[in-house]
Amino acid sequence: MASSLQNQRTTTESRQSLQEQANKLYRNRKAFQDFIHGKIELHPVCVRIINTPQFHRLRHIKQIGTCYYVYPTACHNRFEHSIGVCYLAGKLVRKLKERQPDENITDVDILCVEIAGICHDLEAPTPSNIVANDRNGVDVDKWDYLARDSHILGLNMTLDYERCFTSARVIKSNGENGGNGTNGEHAIVPRKQICYREKDALDLYDMFYARLNLHRRAYQHKTHTVIGLMISDALIAANDSILIGGKKITETVDDMKAFTLLTDDVLQLIIHKKKEEDSRGKDNPQLDRAYQLIQDIMNRRLYKCVSQTHCKDKNLTKADVLDGLKKCLKDKSVPENFIIVNIVKFNYGMKNRNPLDKVRFYKKDKLDTAFKLKKEQVL
Picking from 110-119, 252-261, 326-335, which range would have the lowest pLDDT averaged per residue? Predict the structure, then answer.
């Protein structure tokens, strides 16, 4: 009898201890107000990551780079985007855990995915079905930046990721082609992947179309591209004159401390360095060139876009174009190094393939059977 009471007391104490830990964890969660997702609460571990110098660096890196010079409202940064990706990653995994308890998704699993989301812009992300999906391109990174960028650019695109989140299920699929080795199909070892209700296929098409639309109207905008080229030339010219953490600009990539200090503010460093050397009467032609390029950007004296054309040759390279231009410029007064060729390829994220070729779907009455939808079955 005494032993039974002791066991009950121990069990009660253990439950109270776990509840206290849970309450403490909840109290330590930090709330963020996001203009896309509303109120966001993050795990203390994610908050600790946010409070590192490496993550704070993202406050000073524009989310869509030089688009800020084309769309003045596009002043949002990688900082808030990464927080949004963290939030969506956790939200999606919680949905999966709620609907599929047999998958044994733990709180630790959820936290690991959230950490992957919060860290995805600190370095090249490791491919995953959740944050950076290299299989079919459907991931929370894309859901966040498409919604965030289109809103900040004033393009008002409607992206219903909530609907896709609600229908997402983990199902064992036969892989790339869904083949089973019969009828000449190449059999692939089945593996689990996130699948969606067949009725949500249009929402996924909308996502890929939004991506294409943003590339056409913003990410590959000709003025954005031109300014990017001018900034690149300015950084190259200033490389030997600007030290960041004791390193040249090109050397920072191999030094974490120096790289942490490298942000979009480097353009201001060039301006200040130029004024400092001018006050000392020091002559520095390369720094002068970098400074002049920055001033040209600010005053809208940009490189000229001479011509644009659509090309049917999908394998065309910059070298091919330059060879053709050299023949046209023979005996002309324009030096070859004054010409920059930029080839832009627009697609839905999978080059020439249907973007949903590698996405798998299921039907309401067959929750554990994944299949591929053909384009004509959707549109």
Answer: 326-335
> What are the CA-CA distances from residue 296 to residues 68, 141, 340 (Å)?
16, 34, 17
Claim to verify: residue 212 and residue 232 sit in the same structural domain:
no
CATH number of the CATH domain containing 185: 1.10.3210.10
Nearest to 43 by CA among 168, 51, 142: 51
Which range (24-33, 77-86, 114-123, 272-281) has the least confidence?
A: 24-33
Q: Which domain covers residue 135, as residue numbers?
A: 17-220+360-377
Q: Are 26 and 47 in contact (CB under 8 A)?
A: no
19 CB-near residues (< 8 Å, 6+ apart): none
From the list 54, 50, 55, the residue with the least C-alpha distance to 31 is: 50
Token duo for residue 36? 């896309």
C-alpha distances out from residue 215 to 149, 153, 242, 269, 358, Å: 11, 12, 33, 30, 22
pTM of the model: 0.85
**Quick one: what percent of the chain has pLDDT higher than 90?**
58
Contact indicator for 147, 158 with CB cutoff of 8 Å:
no
Which residue type sits at 138?
V
Sign of the torsion formed by the C-alpha atoms of 218, 81, 200 and 160: negative
313 plus 366 within the same structural domain: no
Is a pLDDT exceeding 60 seen at residue 177? no
Question: How far apart (Å, rounded) are the C-alpha atoms in residues 185 and 191?
Answer: 17
The tokens of 79 are what? 């900082």
CA distance 378 to 376: 5
Residue 350: inside a domain, yes or no?
no
For the chain, what is the domain count?
Answer: 2
